[in-house]
Design brief:
This protein is mainly alpha-helical. The protein has a two-stranded antiparallel sheet. It has a two-stranded antiparallel sheet with strand order 3-4. The longest helix is centred in the last third of the chain and has 21 residues.
Length: 548
């Protein structure tokens, strides 16, 4: 691509927010050079570029306490907004659980009377401490004078003569205070579900910006897809495996936004059950139904996951990080019950001093607790999941006479495509705020392997002989698992709740545009797939008119 006179840059694409605009003009906060142009943001020029969190000018190098760091990222606990002149205005955010330079405390709230007031300043009568994450925890000191706030901010200490009984209660309160300080709890906060479901923030610009002609075609294709399942099936059946992730996600976003996703998922599930060679090939990794459900489950199921497994996940993280230990010290050579926190059962990964039996029992105990938590959560399983599982229960007998394939199918959707990924990548599903360390990751893999064996109704294979110690444990949990699947597949005819949030506009536009270009490129294959369908000729004519 050669830069012409009217262009100030040309990076060989029509993206915006990459330094060179769709009209080939230099964007603020970037410098571009070469042909085709290579553009980079200029951190420290006082103009916030798209890939910068903030930019407050040259003082970024010497002042890293104003909310905008040296690398133009926003300092933890601050909020930055761009001004009209392009620079960033950063301010501390009181109540977000991160203590900044002008705050004495930050307990994650802005209520008075809890030790840390609405301005993030200490209140009298409390003892406050700050944990490693920056969250302040305050505990009332019962012996301190009560405090009355006057209109002119005068503080009046009020003392009372305490009867003997009250004095004894005060002593008890001091004991409780000491215990609470030693074993104080950290607050857990729900994640940004929409951001997790659709990406970082769902506001990425359309890639690239389509012409008016293409926009018209996108609208027509969108309407044709929504009104015609035959076209959807033809698109799915002709998509190569390398394109399935992108196209399945695009279809999920479109049908979810239009309120028809459950309908098209049921159609796809019925088709895949009908054409399956055996239960072993049903809903595998290359299944469109599986891929669409995986995307859909992150939109609908994240709150359920958080409320079911959030606390357990942080406890597992602490256990694998060595934060679970005895609170006592002894000079004698004594072994603490709290010192054994490993669940590793693979001899090749265990140290010489490892206790194999203890590890196996520990793994069984933890898996059982996780399993019991999931089983007890059955009433809270999203209604949308229930309706899909009920549909699977209706369709499976048409193809497989036995009941076991039904359990296998439900296990594939609920565990293999939802629960297990959330355990092995907890930060992707909002169960942890950062990726787990190597030890915790190994714990989660072992737990997930065991849960998946239970869900599949199978025992570990020969390649994982170290898991044979779990055989009896797994076998004893298969029947309760099937009962759980039966309950989840009951449709109580509850109304489907409103969708929790909409697909961000640019994410949706990108999905429609991606699908439009895919159909255009694969049109000969799609037309061939439509030949055998009753209404295929009518759909082909509409596609021909759309892409002529």
């Amino acid at each position: 691509m050669i830069i012409v006179t009217q262009e100030t840059c040309d990076d060989n694409n029509t993206f915006i927010n990459d330094g060179c605009s769709s009209s080939c003009q230099l964007e603020s906060g970037y410098i571009c050079s070469g042909s085709p142009s290579v553009c980079v943001s200029t951190c420290g020029d006082g103009v916030k570029a798209f890939d910068e969190g903030c930019d407050d000018g040259p003082d970024r190098i010497t002042d890293n306490t104003d909310g905008c760091l040296y690398n133009c990222t926003i300092q933890r606990g601050w909020s930055c907004i761009p001004l009209q002149n392009g620079t960033s205005n950063c301010s501390e955010v009181c109540g977000n659980g991160v203590k900044t330079k002008t705050e004495n405390c930050d307990d994650g709230g802005i209520a008075d009377g809890d030790g840390c007031d609405q301005n993030c300043q200490y209140e009298n009568g409390f003892d406050c401490t700050e944990d490693d994450s920056g969250i302040t925890t305050c505990i009332r000191i019962r012996d301190s004078p009560a405090v009355v706030k006057g209109g002119s901010n005068n503080l009046v200490a009020v003392y009372a003569v305490v009867p003997t009984v009250i004095g004894l209660l005060a002593i008890g309160a001091v004991v409780v205070f000491i215990l609470l300080r030693k074993y104080r709890k950290r607050s857990l906060y729900e994640p940004d579900y929409s951001g997790l479901a659709f990406g970082v923030d769902g506001t990425a610009a359309a890639d690239p910006i389509p012409s008016d002609h293409v926009k018209h075609g996108m609208a027509e294709l969108e309407a044709l897809l929504i009104s015609n399942n035959t076209l959807v099936m033809a698109v799915c059946n002709t998509t190569q495996s390398t394109e399935m992730d992108r196209i399945s996600k695009a279809l999920t976003y479109i049908f979810y936004e239009k309120g028809h996703l459950l309908e098209i998922l049921k159609v796809r599930i019925s088709h895949e059950i009908h054409v399956a060679d055996s239960v072993n090939t049903l809903f595998r990794a290359t299944s469109f139904a599986s891929k669409m459900f995986t995307t859909y489950s992150k939109i609908i199921g994240l709150p359920y996951l958080w409320n079911t497994l959030g606390l357990i996940m942080y406890e597992l993280r602490d256990m694998g990080s060595g934060e679970v230990e005895s609170k006592y010290k002894s000079k004698a050579s004594q072994r603490s019950l709290m010192s054994h926190t490993s669940i590793e059962v693979d001899p090749n990964k265990m140290g010489e001093e490892a206790d194999t039996i203890a590890n196996q029992l520990q793994l069984q105990l933890i898996v059982h607790q996780v399993w019991k938590t999931i089983i007890d959560s059955e009433p809270n399983v999203p209604i949308q999941f229930r309706k899909l599982f009920n549909h699977i229960g209706q369709e499976m007998p048409k193809r497989f006479a036995e009941q076991q394939p039904f359990y296998f199918a439900i296990g594939s959707f609920f565990f293999l495509r939802f629960i297990v990924p959330s355990l092995t990548t907890p930060h992707v599903y909002g169960l942890l705020d950062e990726p787990p360390n190597e030890t915790v990751q190994r714990f989660l893999i072992l737990i997930s392997k065991t849960l998946q064996n239970i869900a599949n109704g199978t025992l570990p294979g020969k390649k994982e002989q170290y898991m044979e110690s779990m055989n009896d444990f797994i076998s004893s949990h298969i029947a309760p698992a099937n009962e759980f699947f039966d309950k989840m597949a009951v449709d109580h005819n509850d109304p489907i709740p409103p969708d929790p949030f909409s697909v961000p506009a640019n994410t949706y536009s990108n999905a429609v545009f991606s699908l439009y270009k895919h159909v255009e490129a694969a049109l000969p294959k799609i037309n061939a797939a439509l030949d055998d369908q009753p209404d295929g000729q009518e759909v082909k004519q509409k596609l021909q008119a759309l892409f002529q």
